[in-house]
Design brief:
By secondary structure, this protein is α/β, with parallel strands linked by helices. Helix content is 32%, strand content 21%. GO terms for molecular function: hydrolase activity, acting on glycosyl bonds.
Length: 577
């Protein structure tokens, strides 16, 4: 019997034996072909056998499992003023329902001022256009104020070009701060908060706002003065917001030459919870944290102490993960199976602590991204990064991580879903298909290999990653009971997958994503079933049209590609309720 391998959970040898017996009995008796003669038979070629347990889900996730993040740097580089763009709101709405976390490295340098936006509170721009640029922003704000409901704008091309130039210059300042770990304060005015909330509300996103945890009293206790002012302003506006405090508290010693230990951090969260309860509108608002960085030694010790000393006050436990740093120089770095597997190791560490102290708490992966410090041009903004992103979603779901927050939806740089021209990058299209097709119920996948030489082993398993969920109930193209399988093929060769067991002889809808253009894996454009994906206009998505595979047909995954496959009319028990 050939060796088995499984993704992401183990199946039984009895299951495999039954499948093999069924396939062999329906195939022509195997005979070794003569040298240089006939084409290899079915049993001689590599084949992956795939089945899914449709009786019950192994995990049930949040409906907002795939969610988004915006970094406070958009205040400094000026992009916050353009969140009213019809195109940006349309793109964000395509990924709803979701959370929108406003947080990042500069969370702990945010200072709230209950003022209208003044030019002196903005980041600097090139002198030759600064005055006209600021006047354009003010005129745009006045026009938006006259609108009722969602406040949307179409910005002139010249205005956007000037903003891109300003952001390019400011990005160098922001990057220098991040690399040196010396940060300047970021002023959030009342109008800036209005613009942020308008964006989230119009796009159907629930805003989670990160408060500055480094605003400290002489005794190192948290100074809540600025936070209370922000809470009162937001409550007066009736803004439906959830809250968190700080970002990567394990890094405070490096970032601000001061430290906050686990017991102090737990006290700060308890104080914030009390503060929320004192503001009537937010008395039942959710609180998330502690948002530790990558779970290495110091971060793990901080999380353990936080949970031990009253961290159960949070509604979900949050942490962050980044795969790679700026030393990455080639596409292959995004496709290393060892790199892809690091997330599983980190999740295991975090879950162990949470389950020890508060097993009822959900765990969220916040601030996840393919690369650190804004990403790398022509790498983290290309199709190749999509393997890391979809792998993150698949592994997180299999482990029961309730929400994954992608850093970042939009900003200047190369680590985002939407670029500075408001065009969707490959990771956006992966996210859109995920939202469109994948529901929160995770199913167990059984995978095995059938081939004569060489035997299937770790290489096939590691480079062909397969996950299964119930199809999203929000997708009315499919009835309840449908199953969605998504596959990452990192092999440089085509892989054939035979649906077996409960999936056998079912009609399949294929959504195959491949890079579009001569750049190959470094392309920033994507094709779906051979057709390039582009926005029709600022408010219209392209049709996500599947290719129908007849019942019983083998799935052929092209080299280095991503595929979503909906098994129709399967009436899976786990997906009916």
């Amino acid at each position: 019997m050939p060796r088995q391998f499984f993704c992401p959970v183990f199946g039984s040898s009895l299951w495999l034996a039954l499948i093999l017996q069924s396939l062999i009995s329906s195939a022509v008796t195997y005979r070794r072909p003569v040298s240089g003669g006939k084409r290899q038979s079915f049993l001689e070629r590599t084949l992956i056998l795939l089945d899914v347990n449709t009786r019950s889900p192994v995990k049930v996730l949040n409906d907002n499992f795939l969610s988004l993040q915006l970094d406070p740097s958009i205040i400094k580089d000026g992009w916050l003023d353009f969140l009213s763009s019809k195109r940006l709101v349309t793109l964000a709405r395509g990924l709803s329902p979701a959370y929108l976390r406003f947080g990042g490295k500069r969370t702990d340098f945010l200072q709230f001022h209950n003022l209208k936006n003044l030019a002196k509170f903005r980041g600097p721009g090139p002198d030759y256009y600064l005055k006209n640029y600021e006047d354009d922003i003010v005129r745009s704000d006045f026009a938006l104020d006259k609108q009722k409901g969602c406040k949307l704008a179409s910005h002139p091309d010249m205005m956007l070009e000037l903003q891109r130039e300003k952001a390019a210059q400011m990005q160098q300042v922001l990057l220098k701060e991040q690399l040196s770990n010396i940060y300047s304060d970021v002023t959030l005015t009342a109008r800036s908060l209005d613009k942020l909330y308008n964006f989230a509300d119009c796009a159907g996103l629930h805003l989670i706002f990160g408060l500055n945890a480094l605003h400290r009293n002489p005794d190192n206790s948290w100074n809540a003065t600025s936070a209370l002012s922000l809470l009162k302003y937001s409550a007066g506006k009736k803004y439906n917001i959830s809250w968190e405090l700080g970002n990567e508290p394990n890094s405070y010693r490096i970032m601000a030459a001061r430290s906050v230990n686990s017991s102090r951090l737990a006290q700060d969260y308890t104080l914030l919870k009390t503060l929320l309860q004192s503001v009537r509108f937010y008395s039942r608002a959710n609180l998330y944290g502690p948002n530790i960085g990558r779970p290495r030694k110091n971060a793990i010790l901080l999380l353990d102490g936080f949970m031990k000393n009253g961290g159960s006050v949070v509604d979900a436990v949050t942490w962050q993960h980044y795969y790679i740093d700026r030393r990455v120089t080639k596409v292959e770095d995004f496709m290393k199976t060892r790199l892809l597997d690091t997330l599983s190791e980190q999740i295991t560490k975090v879950l162990k602590i949470v389950q020890t102290h508060a097993p009822e708490k959900h765990v969220w992966l916040g601030g996840v991204g393919p690369a650190w410090a804004g990403g790398t041009n022509n790498l983290s903004d290309t199709f190749a990064a999509g393997f890391l992103w979809l792998n993150t979603l698949g592994i997180a779901a299999a482990h029961g991580i309730d929400v994954v927050l992608r850093h970042s939806f939009f900003d200047y740089g190369y680590n985002h879903l939407v670029d500075q021209n408001f065009n969707p990058l490959p990771d956006y299209w992966v996210s859109l298909l995920f939202k469109h097709l994948v529901g929160p119920r995770v199913l167990a996948v059984h995978v095995a290999g059938l081939q004569r030489k060489p035997r299937p082993g770790r290489v096939i398993r590691d480079k062909l990653r397969i996950y299964a969920h119930c199809t999203s109930f929000h997708n009315h193209d499919y009835v309840r009971g449908s199953v969605t399988i998504y596959i990452i093929n990192l092999h440089r060769s085509r892989k054939k997958i035979k649906l077996a067991g409960t999936l056998r002889n079912k009609t399949v809808h294929q959504y195959l994503l491949q890079p579009f253009g001569t750049e190959g894996l470094q392309s920033t454009s994507v094709q779906l079933n051979g057709e390039p994906l582009r926005m029709v206009d600022n408010e219209t998505f392209p049709e996500l049209k599947p290719r129908t595979l007849r019942a019983g047909r083998t799935i052929a995954m092209p080299p280095v590609s991503i595929g979503f496959y909906v098994i129709k009319n399967i009436n899976a028990y786990a997906c009916r309720r």
